[in-house]
Amino acid sequence: MVKHPMVPATRRDRLYKNLRECWQLHIFLLAATAYILIFKYYTMFGVQIAFKNYSSARGIWGSPWVGLKHFRTFFKSYYFGRVMTNTLRISIYSLVVGFPLPVLFALLLNVLRNLKIKKFVQTVTYIPYFISTVVLVGMIRQFLNPVVGIYGALYRTLGLGMYPSDLLASGNAFLHIFIWTGVWQSLGWNSIIYVAALSGVSPELHEAAMIDGANRWQRIWSVDFPAILPTIAILLILRCGSIISVGFEKVYLMQNGMNLQFSEVIATYIYKEGLSKGVRGFSYGSAIGFFEAVINFIMLVTVNMITRKISDDSASLW
Questions:
Q1: Are 201 and 223 spatial neighbours (Cβ–Cβ below 8 Å)?
Q2: What is the pTM of this model?
Q3: pLDDT at 318
Q4: Is 28 inside any structural domain?
Q5: Closest of 233, 237, 243 to residue 293, by C-alpha
Q6: In a domain, 1, yes or no
Q7: What pLDDT is attached to residue 1?
Q8: What pLDDT shows up at residue 137?
Q9: Residue 144 and residue 164: Cα distance in Å, rounded?
Q10: Which domain holds residue 297?
């Protein structure tokens, strides 16, 4: 009897084997898969509203096509330059300030050898992340109130005058308050992934660096930082993929008539023009949202390509 050589398993065979051996884990994935298919992919059919004059009576499929009419209306709008400028200003400021600080915080936290102090610092910095946006904005308004807030009390205590100016009514102050309160709230939470990556650094690397005469700061730069560099690159790509997605809740809650010129962003403009005006604004708001998604997609692909050019494949999404 002639023995046939062993035929290597195909990709389909390996998939079936994995399904048979880990079928319990795949059952857990069904709920997440259903959620993504229903709320992420199925809803993409609604994008066509941006190219139609949506009518609730006719529905999405029966509404008449108008092509790029809503896009041209937005581009020619008086508010286009304002909302784009404000959105980019907040996004870039947040990226420049908010992205490196968690990396630096994780590196400094990794230096601590006292576990009690380390856990205490982690707990204190993680807690603000669990404060809801509404409560956070309420705290900001209360602290910065020029009459009854801490800001006003300190102003009078220092003898600078009776009542200070309202910071939330200033456009320039709004920008700094928005960014730095966001940094305070998310600093500890955003550093978790870097702390986890640093925990996987081999102690032998530090021992070798110490033998070569490297001090603590040199070991941070030569050992710890390169270890988390791929993680930094991937998170930077994802962050740039939402460069003009500032968010809605916090900006909207901090807005008032005095700072509106500096605080109106794409998200709040979509709400006011697309939702608050009822059905007649659905198509216009959808067109603006689609434009925002396209810009984010272009940024994601562009930054990912640049990352692949200047680093290895491990620091790219695909």
A1: yes
A2: 0.80
A3: 57
A4: no
A5: 243
A6: no
A7: 47
A8: 92
A9: 10
A10: 50-315
Q: What is residue 135's predicted lDDT score, i.e. its pLDDT?
A: 93
Asked whether the beta carbons of 283 and 60 are under 8 A apart, the reply is no
pLDDT of residue 316: 57
Determine, yes or no, domain membership for 243. yes
Spatial separation of the C-alpha atoms in residues 34 and 143, rounded to whole Å: 44
* Phi–psi pair at 52, nearest 5 degrees: -135, 165
Helices (H), 5-77: 11-21, 23-36, 59-62, 69-76
**Tokens 């023009």 map to which residue?**
273
Measured CA to CA, the distance from residue 105 to residue 282 in angstroms comes to 43
Give the ranges where 59-199 is alpha helix by DSSP (H). 59-62, 69-76, 78-98, 100-111, 115-126, 133-143, 150-157, 171-190, 192-198
Tokens of 42: 């199925």
Q: How far is CA 134 from the centre of its chain?
A: 18
Q: Does residue 141 contact residue 198 with C-beta atoms inside 8 Å? A: no
Give the three-state DSSP class for 139.
helix
Residues near 42 by Cβ (< 8 Å), separated by ≥ 6?
none
Count of the separate structural domains present in the chain: 1
Beta bridge partners of 52: 65
Residues of the chain where predicted confidence (pLDDT) is lower than 70: 1-9, 311-318
Other Cβ atoms less than 10 A from the Cβ of 185: the count is 19
> Which pLDDT belongs to residue 257?
83
Cα(first)–Cα(last) distance of the chain, in Å? 48
Query: Which residue, 234, 235, 244, is CA-closest to 294?
Result: 244
Looking at residue 308, what is its pLDDT?
A: 78
Rounded Cα distance between 39 and 32, Å, is 11
Domain at 181, CATH number: 1.10.3720.10
Residue 6 lies in a domain: no
Q: What is the pLDDT of residue 183?
A: 92
- Which residues have CB under 8 Å from 49's CB, separation 6+? 60, 63, 282, 283, 286
